[in-house]
Write a structure and sequence with these properties.
Order of helices and strands: HHHEEH
Low-confidence stretches: none
Number of helices: 4
Strand content: 5-15%
Shape: globular
Mean pLDDT: 92
Length: 124
């Protein structure tokens, strides 16, 4: 495993701990975090979502974090107030592991930019 991958794993684990502090529950995986970002971007707070809405919220989370690299751009909201995104540039063809790494890096960036989060220094 490369040093960069170890660093990403360490930062990801620290972020999950921070999210657990924020919401009282540790997301079980990347999709769980993307869902939370989607809920945040929707701006309606905590509520019960249908399975289809949950999938849409994960998509909103993906679009939001990939917007940092210019892949997506927020186009507006539909009649129900849900954000919709436009693909601006084609996503690179990655295998699943590379896709997951890309998304995790952007999720970390999201929390750094939107919540001023940073990896705690050793010993904090």
């Amino acid at each position: 495993m490369f040093k960069r991958d170890l660093e990403l794993d360490r930062t990801w684990a620290a972020l999950l701990v921070e999210i657990e502090k924020m919401i009282g529950k540790k997301p079980k995986d990347l999709n769980g975090v993307l869902f939370l970002i989607g809920v945040q971007e929707l701006g309606r707070g905590k509520k019960i979502f249908s399975k289809e809405e949950k999938q849409d919220l994960i998509h909103i989370g993906i679009c939001k974090v990939l917007s940092y690299s210019g892949y997506y751009e927020l186009e507006g909201q539909d009649k129900d107030g849900w954000p919709y995104w436009k693909l601006i540039k084609k996503l690179p063809h990655f295998d699943l592991l590379e896709q997951e790494k890309l998304l995790k890096m952007h999720v970390i960036e999201y929390f750094e930019k939107e919540y001023d989060w940073s990896l705690p220094k050793h010993g904090e």
